[in-house]
Amino acid sequence: MASLINQIGAVTALNIRTVPQRAAMSIASVVAVALTITVLLFFLALSNGLSKTVTGSGSDDVAIVLRDGSVAELNSVVRKDQLNILATGSGVVQKDGVPVASGELLVIVDGIKRATGTEANMPFRGIGPEGLSLRKGIKITQGRMFTPGTNEIVVGAGLLREFAGFEFAKTINLRGSSWQVVGVFEAPGTVFDSELWADIAVTQSLFNRPNSFQTMRIQLNSASTMPAYKEWAKKDPRLQQLQVLSEREYYAAQASQSTRQFTFIAWGLGIMMAIGALAGALNTMYSSVAARSSEIATLRILGFSGYAAFFGTLVEALALSALGAIAGLLLAFVFFEGRTTSTLGSGFTQLVFKFQLSPAIVVSALVTALLIGLLGGLLPGIRAARQRPQLELAAQ
Amino acid sequence: MNDLVLMRKNLFRKPVRTVLLVVSIFMAFLIFSVMLSFNHAITNFNALPNRMVTLNKINFTESLPIAYYDRLRQMEGVKAATHMNWFGGYYQDPVKGFLPVFAVDPETYFAVYGEDLPVTPEVRDKFFSERTAMLAAKPVADKWKWRVGQRIPMNSNIFSQANGSHTWEFTLVGVFDTPQGSSQTGSVLIHFDYFNETITFGRDRIGWIPFLTTSATVNDKVAQAIDQRFMNSQDETSTQDEAAFNKSFAAQLGNIALVVTLVVGAAFGAILLIVGTTMALAVRERTREVGVLKTLGFSSGRVLAMVLGESLLLSIFGSGLGMLGAAGLLELVKNAMAGGGPPMSFAPIVLWWGIPIAIALGLVTGLAPALGAYRLKIVDALGRR
C-alpha cells in the first residue's frame, strides 16, 4: 500500500513537472475552466446580492398588511378605516399613547440611471409619522428628515449613487408642484436604501390618491406575538380580503421571486460552459497521456502499477482545473465582487445592490471545477492504466 | 481522392478528439445563439415607425385622465389613437397565473394594433359587440386550456368590484396567433367600458395612449405638440415612439447587451484556445505525413489550404450544430413560457453574426498550424521524430 502511494506520488510529480512541455493545451484547459467559473460566479453573486438585500430589509416583529392576492406593494390597496382597525390589534407597540404603525403609499417616479442616461423606475414612498421608527438601522447622513405636511423628500444613499435627478438640496417638479430634497439617509443592505421618502398625506394629495394606502406596517412587541396578531386579523370580518405577513416573510417571498431567474441563468450558462470546458479538459488529458506513452510504458516495465499511471493522470487533471477555479475566483474578486449594480426588482422599481459571493457559492464553484477535473481525468487515466507497455515501446 | 476527402479523413482520424472539439464549439455557439436571441427579443419588437405612445411624465405606471385621449386624437398629425389600462390580471394563482391583461377600447385598439391581431371579421365583431368579451393570445389560451365560448374568471391584483370581489368573469370570444416578435405576444384583451364601470377606484383614468401618426416624419412635431398641450397641468405627459419606449424599458433590467457580450466573449475565448491548441497538436503529430505529401508533389500552398480547410470544416460543423440546437431550444422555451415574458425565438441576427464568427474561428485556429505545415521542409519533416 505504502509503495503504491509512493508510486502515485512519483508519477504525479513527473506529470506535473512535465506540464510545461504541454503548456499550450494545459493553459487552454485552465483558461476554459477559469472562464466557466467566472460566468457561474457572476450570476450567482448577482443572485445572492439581490437576495441578501431584499431579505435583509424585513424584520420579524413588524407586520405588513397587503390586499389579498397582491403580490407586491405597488398594486395593493388598504382602506383608511381598515388601517385604524389594524392599529388596535393585540401586541401593537404604543408610543405616547399612539400605536407605532404607518400607512404607506408607494408611487413610481422616473429617475435617470447614471451609467446609461436612460429613464428608470424610482420608488417614491409616502410614509406615516412612525414610518422611520419602524425601520431599524436608518441613519440620516446629510441634511435632515422631512417635516410632516410639507413637500419635502429624503433620498436613499444607494439610489443617489446609481441614479441622477434627486440630489441633495435639489428642487424637483412633480405633478405641478415642487419638492425639495432636504436629506439623505442610509439604510445599508436593504431595499430602502434605493427609495425616496416623503410624508404620506402630502404624497396622497399631490399624486391625486386621496385617502389611498397600499400597505400598513405595524410594530409588534416582539416576533412571538406575530401569530396571535395574524390570527386576530383573520377573524375580524372588517379585515377580510387583507393578508398579514411579517415583514421578513414578505421580503423573503419577494427575494425568491427575483432571484430564482438569476440562479437559473447562472446554472444554465454554467453547465453549458462547463460541458465545453470538460471537452477541452478531456482533449488535454488524452493528449497528455499520448505524449507520455513511452514514459508510462517505461515506468510499467520498471514495475510501477497501472494505478499509479491512472492516479497520476487524474491528479494532473484535478490540478489543472483547481488552477482554473482559483483563476476564476481571482477574476471574480477583481471584476465584480462588492460592485454596486441595479436592476428592476419584483416591486417593479429599481433596486440597488452589490454583487456578493458567499462561502456556499465559492464551494459550489470549486465543486463544479473539480468535477470538470475529475471527469476530465477519469477516462484518460483509464487509458493510461490500460496501456500495454511492450506494445507501446515496440511501436516507437 | 480529392482534397476534401483527405481533410475529412484527417479530421476524423482521432474521432474522440474531434467529437470533443465539436462539443466545445457546439456549446459556445449554443450560448451565443440563445443569449443573442434573448437580447434581440427584449430590445426589438415589431414596432411601427409611426406608432407612438403618450405616457404620464412622472412614470408610465401613473395614469392619465380619459379626457386626454379625446383631446389627443383630434390633434394634427394623429391618424388614429386608442387607450389601454393595466388590469393586474391573474388566473387562479397570483404568481403562476400572472397574465398581461389590458382593458382596451376595442374599435380604436384594432385601428392602432390591427396588424398584430389576426382574427376573422366575425371574431372581431363579436369582441366589439359583447361587453364582457375577452380576446386572448393563442399560447395563453392553450396553456390554460381555455375554449372559445367559455366563461373565464379573471382576478385583478389591483382593482376590486363594488361587492369587494377581485374577480371578473369574461367570455372568451376568440384567440389570436400573433406574428413573431409582436408587441401583442401573450396579451389578453378586455373592454375598457366594462372595466371602468365596475371598478371602485381609478375610474375615468387611462394607463397610456398608443396612437399612429400620419407619417413617421411628423413624429417629433406631434410628440412636442402633445407634451406642450398638457404642460403645467396636473398630469404632464411624455410622448415617445414605440421603439424608443421598448428600448428604455429593456434598459431598466440592466445593461443586458454588456452582459451578453461578456458571457459570449468568455465562451468564445475558451473555445478559441481549446480548438487552437488542439489543432496545433493535431498537425504537429502529422509532421511526417506533411513531409510525405510534399515529397509526393503537393505544393506548400495546397498543404496550407488543406490544414485551414480542416479547421474550417470543424468550426462550421460545430457552430452549425450549435445554432441548430439553439433554434430547437428556443422553440422549447417559447412553448414553455406560453406567451409570457419576451417573445423568444431564434433571431435571424444570430446567423448574421454567427456565420462570420464561425469562419473567423476556423481560420484563426487553423492559421498557426497551417503556416507551420506550409513552411515545413521535407528534410526536417522526415528527419524529425
Contiguous helical run count of chain B: 14
Largest sheet of chain B: 7 strands, mixed
The class by helix and strand makeup of chain A works out as: alpha+beta
Provide the number of structural domains of chain A.
2
In round numbers, the mean pLDDT of chain B is 90
What is the CA-based Rg of chain B, rounded? Answer: 29 Å
Poorly predicted tracts of residues of chain B: none
User: Helix content range of the residues of chain B, please?
Assistant: 40-55%
So how many helices of chain A? 11
N-to-C span of chain A: 32 Å
Number of strands of chain A: 15
Task: Give, in order, the helices and strands of chain A.
Answer: HHEHEEEEEEHEEEEHEHEHHHEEHH
Overall structural class of chain B, as computed from helix and strand content, comes to alpha+beta
Quote the average pLDDT of chain A: 91
Structure, explained:
The complex is a heterodimer of chains A (396) and B (385). With 396 residues, chain A is α+β, with helices and mostly antiparallel strands. Chain A folds into two domains: 193 residues, no CATH class; 172 residues, no CATH class. Helix content of chain A is 50%, strand content 21%. Chain A is built from eleven helices and 15 strands. In chain A, the strands form three sheets. In chain A, strands 1, 4, 5, 6, 7, 8, 9, 10, 11, 12 and 13 form an eleven-stranded mixed sheet that branches. In chain A, helix 7 packs across helix 9. Chain A is elongated, with a radius of gyration of 30 Å. Chain A starts with a helix and ends with a helix. With 385 residues, chain B is an alpha+beta fold. Chain B folds into two domains: 172 residues, no CATH class; 201 residues, no CATH class. Helices cover 54% and strands 15% of the residues of chain B. In chain B, the strands form three sheets. A seven-stranded mixed sheet of chain B has the order 4-6-10-7-9-8-5. In chain B, helix 2 packs across helix 12 and helix 2 packs antiparallel against helix 13. In chain B, 44% of the residues are buried. The model of chain B has no long low-confidence stretch (mean pLDDT 90). Chains A and B meet through helix 2, strand 4, strand 5, helix 7 and strand 14 of A and helix 2 and helix 10 of B.
